[in-house]
């Protein structure tokens, strides 16, 4: 049985995450949320941001599962010297925060992990394509799936943070079947229905003009297998028309072949009114659908929309499972 708690790893100490988290914690969405919140971050830095934003939030030190109670906020302090903002010091802090947070989820069997954004270029340093892959490695997960979720329409790229010239080699029938099967199970478990899924082709108008025909060799066979599994899927559709309003309203999820093929139209339509969910980990992992946003740090202008969406999702769906 899942423990009624969620773990929040605040991430990059220079990002706007503390600001949007504080704004979210003051939002009405947190009223009677039904689970406890455990923050893993620098207590000193969090208090500094509370003071800077002239906000009061009641929280207490986490002292183990026996101290947990619904609708309360706890903190595990990860010391951080905020006067040393070197990449090395920040990376050590971020790594320790994730290590503590992941171990805490395993020990507590918590509902979910929310993490603040980090800089992939400075923290991951090319060892992992993104935080989705980093967390999959840390939890020994083999079939991680990125789902950018909005209740009106969600998207998922088959390949994530890889160069565009490497995408073709990664589009495989087996991978497509595995990822879409996971998405289907996620919707059935947490949202309570079988989703209508559209899948795009890789090439313009779903036509391969030279070399291997990806649509015929990989995508269409994958669709055939998925239909035999009673998954409601249609395609492949051309990516330049599937997001037209009349067409996209027929589907709950659009699965694309690469990152920007589906995330660009998603953000154009919904802005940051969406959340990034990682499926396939031992727990539900959610992060706001934006980066560290350094240029907005300490300006008190960052909007918490995406994080509010994350808490709303947890309150409505995950907490009931």
Layout of strands and helices, then pairs:
Layout: E1 3-9, H1 17-25, E2 36-41, H2 43-52, E3 60-61, E4 73-77, H3 87-108, E5 110-115, H4 120-123, H5 131-138, E6 145-149, E7 154-157, H6 167-170, H7 173-191, E8 197-200, H8 214-228, E9 233-237, H9 245-248, E10 253-256, H10 259-270, E11 275-279, E12 284-288, H11 305-316
Parallel strand pairs: 1-2, 1-5, 2-4, 3-4, 5-12, 7-10, 8-9, 8-10
Antiparallel strand pairs: 6-11, 11-12
Question: Can you characterise this structure?
Answer:
The protein has 321 residues and is of the alpha/beta class. The protein folds into 2 domains: 1-141 and 281-321, Isopropylmalate Dehydrogenase, CATH 3.40.718.10; 148-273, Isopropylmalate Dehydrogenase (3-Layer(aba) Sandwich), CATH 3.40.718.10. The protein contains 11 helices and 12 strands. The strands form 2 sheets. An 8-stranded mixed sheet has the order 3-4-2-1-5-12-11-6. The chain has a 4-stranded parallel sheet with strand order 7-10-8-9, sandwiched between helices. Strand 8, helix 8 (214-228) and strand 9 (233-237) form a beta-alpha-beta unit. Helix 7 (173-191) packs parallel to helix 8 (214-228). The longest helix has 22 residues, at 87-108.
Mean pLDDT equals: 89
What's the structural domain tally? 2
In whole angstroms, how far apart are the ends?
A: 9 Å
The run of helices and strands is EHEHEEHEHHEEHHEHEHEHEEH
Strand percentage: 15-25%
Number of strands: 12
| Alpha-beta content class | alpha/beta
CATH architectural arrangement of the largest domain? 3-Layer(aba) Sandwich
CATH homologous superfamily designation of the largest domain: Isopropylmalate Dehydrogenase
CATH class group of the largest domain: Alpha Beta
CATH topology of the largest domain: Isopropylmalate Dehydrogenase
Based on CA atoms alone, the radius of gyration comes out at 20 Å
